[in-house]
Amino acid sequence: MKKYLLTLALMASTLMGWALEVECTPGSLASHVADHGITTLTITGQMDARDFKFIADELDALTTVDLTGVEIVAYSNASNPLFNNEVSFAGNCVPAMAFFGKKISSINLPGNTKAIGKAAFAGCKQLTSINLPEGLDSIGAFAFSSSALGRVTIPSTLKSLGIGAFSHCQALLSANIIPTQAMVLPKDAFYDCMFLQVLTLGPNVTGIGDGALAGTPRLTSITFTQQNNIASIGKAAFAGSGIVNFNFSQANALIEIADWAFAQSKQVSAVIPASVNHVGKGAFYYATELTSYIPNEHSDSIADFLLAGTAASNEDVAGNSVQYIGKYALYNTPATTMILPATVNYIGTQAMAGMTSLQDVTIKAKQVPELGDDVWLGVNQEVIPLHVPRNTGEAYMAAAQWQNFLVQEPGGVFGDVNQDGTVTSADITALYNYLLSNDMTFYETSDVNEDGSINAADITLIYNLLMGSKNISGRNKSVTSSSDMMSAQGFIIEKGETRTIDVELLNSAAFSALQLDIDMPQGLKITSAAATSRAAGMMMGYNEVEPGKWRILLSSATALSGNDGTLLAITVEADDSFGGNEVISVNNIIAVEPSELVHFISNFEVEVGTTTGVKDINIDNQASGPVDVYNMNGQLLRRNVDPSEATQGLPQGIYIVGGKKVIVR
């Protein structure tokens, strides 16, 4: 019986030895821990890098660490390197490699922790729980790589996240990164996180670094707490991920998509925003579920390997401005028809090899493009029509590789857009349907003047054909930048209200057709648009061609009346999502003379304000000296007037009075 009781006493003593609470002074932890087999350690007081070094070297059985009651103080000793051969360690910082490879499953950090060093918890394969205190501003490279964390919420105070910080975290399911300062998700941040399913990013995350989300097959989408402000997507950023819908339509800040960015991902479509100026090679390489790729209007290349192995089948994959199509760019894609723009001048080696579904090709280039080797390898060119511009058939039939197609020049009636055998106003309607609603029915015949784009100039040409003032010759009129100006006054609007924008045109040339695009901010929409008496007799149409983008067309057999004044009255409405203090962008302004000379008029913006949360701005009636009054387009309205009379009689809107913004209600 005594032996049994003694055994129990020894067991109890041993079990108590597994947990230890220590009040520590800097560098003294080793003197307080006699049993190096403890599994739970609570430290209060102060500690420094020497104490972390003792834990790393001696306490291999630790599973639970509580540092909430301790202060980490600075330590420096040039003759005594500790972690990572470093000799100086900042206060409130977990040193680099402090817990590297340890068996800990849970740790609580001090509330005033500012930094977690490089690889501090890397290889902690049992670490499932850690508090990341608010106030933390730095997490070092590979800090939690190969740990067992299941969920991570990055403190809003974080300023720096290191390379590979959460890479190879096979148990990680979700991560929230909503910083208050601009931050790029760094290289390899979540690389090879096989089970990551939920990623939430705040508006201050401005980039996805190289390989940041590569190898995350269960990550199908990213949730943005507000707007998507991603400006750059790095090399292989989503390679091998499960991303299905990175929403390009909301990525209005996006500038660059780097090489292999979505390679072997699950992305299903890519409509490249107008802001993007570079899409790198192989960006969607073997993203096998990608069915549609739409370049933006100024894309000048389809990079090497860009769409190889995808399911992209849309005929306009090369856009309207592409000059260079790289090697293997469309390798093994399933498109049945293809339209190559007038701008293309080079197609690389095997760019379209393996496109065995191809049935019809249109090339608009009047100069035969240079080709690499075996461009259409495996394609049965002998049975595929190649539609070429007028008077170029002989050149294509004499050119290597091109000659293997069934080369065909256009037939039928010139200007017959709808292909009914004659040129009538129905052809104008067909062009309107394309420009206003993207109706692709007569896309191939809509570029009447064969200048590589479809716009109001094609409508003018048909008018001339109908009026008998134009024949087949003399197409491809030149384009000029215009000194003419279109403008509209800024205005204020409340949610639920409507306002009418008077669009003015100051023109030196007489125009018979105009086209303009209007980009509306969130919460504003166009409810009606009408031409003024200046445009009497002109045909007018408008439509929302993309979410938030409205297109207006005006055309006539005769020119505009007058050369100054209001041309359009556009009514807009604000809904509950309108935030105020926005701009309406008016761009792609094309004006065409009856002679078909095309003018590009400068873009402009209309400032929109709201009274909500905006203080009244009062003119200082005691100001010394007169003031000038301008509208938001910079036009001088009144010169050297008394401040008390500056805005009298002006309509509602926003003005610059004496160098200050003033709202007139």
Write the layout of secondary structure elements.
Blueprint: H1 2-16, E1 19-24, H2 29-32, E2 40-47, H3 49-58, E3 64-72, E4 75-76, E5 88-89, E6 93-94, E7 106-108, E8 115-116, E9 129-130, E10 138-139, E11 151-154, E12 160-161, E13 174-177, E14 183-185, E15 198-201, E16 205-208, E17 223-224, E18 232-233, E19 256-257, E20 269-271, E21 278-279, E22 292-294, E23 301-302, E24 324-325, E25 337-340, E26 346-347, E27 360-363, E28 370-371, E29 385-387, H4 393-398, E30 406-408, H5 425-437, H6 443-446, H7 456-466, E31 479-481, E32 485-488, E33 491-492, E34 498-506, E35 513-519, E36 524-531, E37 539-546, E38 549-555, E39 566-574, E40 582-592, E41 598-601, E42 604-609, E43 627-631, E44 636-641, E45 653-657, E46 660-664
Parallel strand pairs: 1-2, 2-3, 3-7, 6-8, 7-9, 8-10, 10-12, 11-13, 13-15, 14-16, 15-17, 16-18, 18-19, 19-21, 20-22, 23-24, 24-26, 25-27, 26-28, 27-29, 29-30, 31-41, 33-42
Antiparallel strand pairs: 4-5, 32-34, 34-39, 35-38, 35-40, 36-39, 37-38, 40-41, 40-42, 43-44, 43-45, 45-46
